[in-house]
Fold this sequence. Notes:
It is built from seven helices and five strands. It has 199 residues and is an alpha/beta fold. The protein has one domain (30-191): Glucose-6-phosphate isomerase like protein, domain 1 (Rossmann fold). The protein has a five-stranded parallel sheet, with helices on both faces.
Amino acid sequence: MxxxxxxxxxxxxxxxxxxxxxxxxxxIHTPFKELLDVATKSLKKGGKILFFGNxxxxxxxxxxxxxxxxxxxxxxxxxxAIALTTDTSALTAIGNDLGFDHLFSRQIxxxxxxxxxxLGITTSGQSPNVIKGFEMAKKKGLVCAGLTGKDGGxxxxxxxxxxxxPSNTTARIQEMHIFVGQLLCDALEKNLGIKxxxx
Length: 199
């Protein structure tokens, strides 16, 4: 058995990350601009962004909602955003009473308004509860925006805008998702023309 080589491992991972970043750079300009445009339009009209996803993507949903509600770079007025992954009472009640597949659709039914942004994150594009969340969002007149990877899965045709990270490696897809998400937070602060508040 060959001994584990940490240096070789690190170089291989960094090289793969760089390759995915390069492929992402080549395709992201148009869908990112579309995402920024619909989010800006919604927020200017009094809407909000509902983030949701499973596992690591749930963590990303919470992270990004927090960046908007609190701040990304500078002190400023809050930007309305909710992570549908944080209310343990709602999550466990929905999972127990209605089933895990309805985790996000039920909350979107309760909290979503026409013109809001439903921003779902799934590395595979196949998560049933994320799909059902988008289906409910469409039914209620929300804008369905997705971050995914691989071939886009079932989000293709369901979400517009849709950013598909060109990789089959979950870790690389997740790295690009949080990168793109933080770019969105930064760009929204700039695009909305929000004035910096004094601390």
